[in-house]
Amino acid sequence: MAKVQNIKGMRDHLPQAMLLRQHILTVVQRVCERHGFDPLQTPVIEYAEVLEGKLGDDEKLIYRFEDHGGRSLALRYDQTVPLARVVAQYAGQLAFPWRRYAYGPSYRGERPARGRYREFYQFDADIVGSSSPLADAEIVALLSEALAELGFPDFVTLLNHRQVIGGIARASGLDEAAAGGVYRAIDKFDKLGASGVGEELVRMGVNTTATEQILALVQTEGSPATVLATLREHLAGDERAVAALDNLHAIIAALEAMGVPPERYRIAPRLARGLSYYTGLVFETITPHWPEGSLLGGGRYDELIGQFAGRAIPTVGLAFGLDRLHDVMEELGLGPRLNTTATAFVTIFGHDLAGEAMALASELRAGGVNTLLSLDPTQGLGKQFKEADRKSARYALVLGPDERDRGEVVIKDLRDGSQRSVARADVVAALTP
Ligand code: AMP
């Protein structure tokens, strides 16, 4: 028989992993709803032309195929381009600014590695129809809240603006066409280091003086105020760069006012981010516990929706990579370690008492206690306890003839083996924390 296997880069998640994933999802969703974001769902498959021309170099990673009707289709690459399509298609029904969140799988033909998959789940949050720096700040505040609630001990969001890098390129004597190449080279900073990026710039034809200047500026470090001041000094004559610095300044001021702890964000002029649709703020959240790359990222894309809608609709958003959050949380032991959804396991004493056991299980479920019911009244209690233990239920419940006569139930705690009798009417309360 052929080996049974799934596709490389696409993962199965068994229950224990799923329970942690669902916890992550619940927390992120709760934080989004706390900020008044509403849910959106779009299909996993789009017309290929919807995705084409939006992703720059990454377009080669799109999964394409033809359906039975000969239509040219693609698996969604992210949830941003489908959002842009939705906004164009339903603009009349949406009240802007519109805050939406969406959760689901995205597909990229990447070379799989730890934290990099071909099918992965993204949780996106976007504010559509606002160019206010308060919208940018709210997205960063939201992610800071979500990661803190998930228990991440130290993470920091690196902030930059597309026109800061553009300004750095221009200040180094490069024309607009060359600026794109500079983004791409700088985007590899974490992978190649300063010297690697320098070599790449020189290979692109940037002279050594300009290369040195670019490298010095993109490595500017310090508090947001210090970094902004240094950049202002060097980019003073460049109108677009100055506007970008003003914008970053306003975003930082809003983050402060919103109470985001200052150690949670930093301006990093070297941050480029690969996707070509960003026009303003770009950001990535990193943690020393995940040196391989970013936990999540996002930015402002004021032009993308216009490609569908015919008019620009300014938008800012982010995508949490559920798989990365999951991998890092697993590694750091963050979040609950659950093996099952069930709290109670109701045993069946014998055929005569099967009906009582079923009624008890129904009462527990109605009372909000997640309950497994034994399926085999012919099995001895010992075997049923073993099954309850294997299923990781916390409690096994016994309702034998004596308990029935006394109107009681025995609750056995499978963690420590202790047991107690409880009046039938009090069982739900006894199992509810
Ligand atoms: P992007 O859509 O490229 O901006 O990515 C947003 C986030 O999605 C990243 O920060 C990751 O957390 C996650 N992500 C992107 N690509 C992958 C991948 N191939 N596998 C797992 N997670 C990914």
Automatic annotation (TrEMBL):
<dbReference type="GO" id="GO:0004821">
    <property type="term" value="F:histidine-tRNA ligase activity"/>
</dbReference>
<dbReference type="InterPro" id="IPR036621">
    <property type="entry name" value="Anticodon-bd_dom_sf"/>
</dbReference>
<dbReference type="InterPro" id="IPR006195">
    <property type="entry name" value="aa-tRNA-synth_II"/>
</dbReference>
<dbReference type="InterPro" id="IPR004154">
    <property type="entry name" value="Anticodon-bd"/>
</dbReference>
<comment type="subunit">
    <text>Homodimer.</text>
</comment>
<dbReference type="GO" id="GO:0000105">
    <property type="term" value="P:L-histidine biosynthetic process"/>
</dbReference>
<dbReference type="InterPro" id="IPR004517">
    <property type="entry name" value="HisZ"/>
</dbReference>
<dbReference type="Pfam" id="PF13393">
    <property type="entry name" value="tRNA-synt_His"/>
</dbReference>
<dbReference type="GO" id="GO:0005524">
    <property type="term" value="F:ATP binding"/>
</dbReference>
<dbReference type="GO" id="GO:0005737">
    <property type="term" value="C:cytoplasm"/>
</dbReference>
<keyword id="KW-0067">ATP-binding</keyword>
<dbReference type="InterPro" id="IPR045864">
    <property type="entry name" value="aa-tRNA-synth_II/BPL/LPL"/>
</dbReference>
<dbReference type="GO" id="GO:0006427">
    <property type="term" value="P:histidyl-tRNA aminoacylation"/>
</dbReference>
<feature type="domain" description="Aminoacyl-transfer RNA synthetases class-II family profile">
    <location>
        <begin position="1"/>
        <end position="269"/>
    </location>
</feature>
<feature type="binding site">
    <location>
        <begin position="277"/>
        <end position="278"/>
    </location>
    <ligand>
        <name>L-histidine</name>
    </ligand>
</feature>
<keyword id="KW-0963">Cytoplasm</keyword>
<feature type="binding site">
    <location>
        <position position="122"/>
    </location>
    <ligand>
        <name>L-histidine</name>
    </ligand>
</feature>
<comment type="similarity">
    <text>Belongs to the class-II aminoacyl-tRNA synthetase family. HisZ subfamily.</text>
</comment>
<feature type="binding site">
    <location>
        <position position="273"/>
    </location>
    <ligand>
        <name>L-histidine</name>
    </ligand>
</feature>
<keyword id="KW-0030">Aminoacyl-tRNA synthetase</keyword>
<dbReference type="InterPro" id="IPR015807">
    <property type="entry name" value="His-tRNA-ligase"/>
</dbReference>
<dbReference type="InterPro" id="IPR004516">
    <property type="entry name" value="HisRS/HisZ"/>
</dbReference>
<dbReference type="InterPro" id="IPR041715">
    <property type="entry name" value="HisRS-like_core"/>
</dbReference>
<protein>
    <recommendedName>
        <fullName>Histidine--tRNA ligase</fullName>
        <ecNumber>6.1.1.21</ecNumber>
    </recommendedName>
</protein>
<feature type="binding site">
    <location>
        <begin position="78"/>
        <end position="80"/>
    </location>
    <ligand>
        <name>L-histidine</name>
    </ligand>
</feature>
<feature type="binding site">
    <location>
        <position position="108"/>
    </location>
    <ligand>
        <name>L-histidine</name>
    </ligand>
</feature>
<keyword id="KW-0648">Protein biosynthesis</keyword>
<comment type="function">
    <text>Required for the first step of histidine biosynthesis. May allow the feedback regulation of ATP phosphoribosyltransferase activity by histidine.</text>
</comment>
<keyword id="KW-0436">Ligase</keyword>
<comment type="pathway">
    <text>Amino-acid biosynthesis; L-histidine biosynthesis; L-histidine from 5-phospho-alpha-D-ribose 1-diphosphate: step 1/9.</text>
</comment>
<keyword id="KW-0547">Nucleotide-binding</keyword>
<dbReference type="InterPro" id="IPR033656">
    <property type="entry name" value="HisRS_anticodon"/>
</dbReference>
<feature type="binding site">
    <location>
        <position position="126"/>
    </location>
    <ligand>
        <name>L-histidine</name>
    </ligand>
</feature>
<dbReference type="Pfam" id="PF03129">
    <property type="entry name" value="HGTP_anticodon"/>
</dbReference>
